Amino acid sequence: MKELVVISGKGGTGKTTVTAALAGLGPDKVIADCDVDAADMHLIMSPEVRSTHDFYSGELAEIDPNECTECGECREMCRFGAISADLQVLPEHCEGCALCYHVCPVQAVHMHERLCGQWYESATRFGPLVHASLGIGEENSGKLVTTVRKASQATAEDKGYELVLVDGSPGIGCPVIASLTNADVALLVGEPTVSAVGDLRRVSELTAHFGIKTLALINKVDINPELVQELKDFCTRQGIEIVGELPYAPAFTQAQLKGQTICEYDPQGLGQTMAGIWERIESCL
User: Fold this and answer.
1) How far apart are CA 105 and CA 90, in angstroms?
2) What value, to the nearest 5°, has the Cα angle with vertex 130 and ends 128 and 136?
3) Which residue from 171, 60, 147, 144 is spatially nearest to 109, judged by alpha carbons?
4) The pairing of beta strand 163-167 with beta strand 213-218
5) In the predicted structure, residue 141 carries a pLDDT above the cut 80
6) How does pLDDT run across 44-85, given as a tens digit for each residue?
7) Half-sphere exposure of 247 toward its Cβ, with a 13 Å CA cutoff?
8) Cα–Cα distance measured from residue 130 to residue 126, given in angstroms and rounded to the nearest whole number
9) DSSP states along 233-254
10) SS3 52
11) Percentage of the chain surpassing pLDDT 90?
């Protein structure tokens, strides 16, 4: 089984648009939306959720009012201001450090697993989709990415599929590192803007560090020819094959508004371009 991860140095470069287009091309596959901090694959895939799972990470303090003597020591010691004047834990401030648990003289504070979000196993017109939603302000997205990635691999093994297509997280932090674990090929989606060029360089250093075969796709290729050439020169120096270029076209937005991939919306135009891109990617898997 192979795993193709689509990533970018920054958000907004068209990573999810490209991933969705690839979902309808090639062999049967499991799709994983590992961009859990800003998940939006479901807007195009229109998934039918088959199972929902709670995601727990870290801990949250709780004060038992029946045991609390209202001494206030927990509130005085909490450096995060997570305990109110009436000795209620404020979840949005609690870091789960358990200091209040340890300083409470009557053991009225209890620590519980923290519910941070949900992950889902769904059916789509392109095959199974594993995706997630992180609660507002919740952290540990890297751990949730790992959960989604492992579940998608397990689904692929169960169904005998040979490919997992991952919409990875942008940037170079913990979530994208979690997305890249076990990846066979990373497809970098870049655009010719100053910030995107710099961020693409950084994320390519990340894939090189982990020894992952890396390909590149240049999106919005017609907005700045000078930076396009800079991107191409960089990829040449780093030995990164450019598998295709996409124009800046209103059709991409129109497709999203209709809940379609670009291959569905424009099958004889940009759909053919994406088919050619897929053929070049497939030859590298």
Assistant:
1) 20
2) 150
3) 60
4) unpaired
5) no
6) 989 999 999 999 988 999 999 999 999 999 999 999 999 999
7) 7
8) 12
9) HHHHHHT-EEEEE----HHHHH
10) strand
11) 69
Q: Can you tell me whether residue 188 is helix, strand or coil?
A: strand
Environment class of 63 (CB within 10 Å of its CB; exposed 0-12, middle 13-18, buried 19+) = buried
Query: How far, in whole angstroms, is CA 153 from its chain's centroid?
Result: 15
- Which token pair is 257? 């508004």
Query: Does the structure show a pLDDT above 80 at 280?
Result: yes
DSSP secondary structure code for residue 119 in this structure: E
Provide the pLDDT for residue 252: 92
Beta-bridge mates of residue 7 = 188
Cα–chain-centroid distance for residue 270?
25
Check: CB of residue 81 under 8 Å from CB of residue 92.
no
- What percentage of the chain has pLDDT greater than the value 70? 99
pLDDT band at 96 (very low <50, low <70, confident <90, very high): very high
How are the residues of the chain apportioned to helix, strand and coil, as percentages rounded to the nearest 5? 40, 25, 35
Which two tokens mark 48? 């039918």
Torsional sign, CA 250, 244, 236, 176: positive
- Mean pLDDT value across residues 109-134: 94
Q: What is the average per-residue pLDDT within 96-108? A: 95
The H or E element containing residue 56 is strand 48-63
Report how far residue 70's alpha carbon sits from residue 6's, in angstroms, rounded to the nearest whole number: 53
User: Distances in Å between the alpha carbon of 104 and those of 69, 162, 247?
Assistant: 10, 54, 62
Q: Max alpha carbon distance in the chain (Å)? A: 73
What SS3 class is residue 8? coil
| Cβ(120)–Cβ(113) below 8 Å | no
Q: Which residue has the tokens 């450096």?
A: 79
Q: Two tokens at 123?
A: 């059916």
